[in-house]
Amino acid sequence: MRHQRLFVAALALFLTVLPAAGRTAADSAQGEEVPRGPGLGARALQALIDGIQFGVIIAITAVGLSLIFGTIHLINFAHGELVTIGATSAFFLNVSPAGPGWHLGLAALAAVAFGALLGAAIDRGVWRPLRARGTGLINMFIVTIGLSLLLRHVVLVLYGARPGSYAQYDIQQAIDLGPAGITPRDLTVTLLSLLTLLGVAVLLQRTRIGTAIRAVSGNRDLAEASGIDVQRVVLVVWMLGGALAALGGVFFGLVEVITWDMGFKLLLLMFAGVILGGLGNAYGAMAGSLVIGVVAQMSTLWFPVDLQYAWALLALIVVLLVRPQGILGRAERIG
Question: Based on C-alpha coordinates, what's the Rg of the chain?
Answer without folding.
Answer: 20
